[in-house]
Amino acid sequence: MFESRPHITKREVLQMRPSHMVVVVYDELFAALREAKVAVEQGEIESRCHAVNYASEMLALLCLCLDHDKGGEIAERLSRLYAFALVRLQHINFYNDSETADELIDLLQPLRKSWFELDERLDSPSGQAGTAVRSQYSAPSPLSLS
């Protein structure tokens, strides 16, 4: 049941803006949550566990990428939100609860939307918004290439 999605190559990662990498991680997280929900509904315990584990990895990645020195209070609040989401995520496995997956998607979707909008502005060909944002913003790289 747990679908293997195409892996992003190291070359693709190196060419991505950090803001785009964060969007990709959110997309992977949401795909895993949707897979967990379907697995619960179909009684696929192993697939549910794989999907929840992958979603946990994506949440941990988002949390580990926070720059607490530059991000200050925002980074601290995001860290607490991601920790809360990690705890809630285990509810899917412990109670075979598909509704928790929807709750987490609803909770985190506005953050993904914000990162997507930032990424679009950075990619803007007009340069108006992109230049201003680029000069003020430096996102940490969310993916480790070790």
Task: Explain briefly what this protein structure is.
The protein is mostly helical and 146 residues long. The protein is built from 6 helices and no strands.
Write the layout of secondary structure elements.
Blueprint: H1 10-15, H2 18-42, H3 45-64, H4 68-95, H5 99-122, H6 128-136
Helix pairs in contact: 2-3, 2-5, 3-4, 4-5, 5-6
Describe the protein's architecture and organization:
It contains 6 helices and no strands. It starts with 9 loop residues before the first helix and ends in a 10-residue tail after the last helix. The relative contact order is 0.17. It is mainly α and about 150 residues long. The chain is globular, with a radius of gyration of 16 Å.
Poorly predicted ranges: 127-146
In the CATH hierarchy, what is the class? Answer: Mainly Alpha
CATH architecture: Up-down Bundle
Count of strand segments? 0
Give short descriptive properties of this protein.
0% strand; single chain; disordered C terminus; Four Helix Bundle (Hemerythrin (Met), subunit A); 146 residues
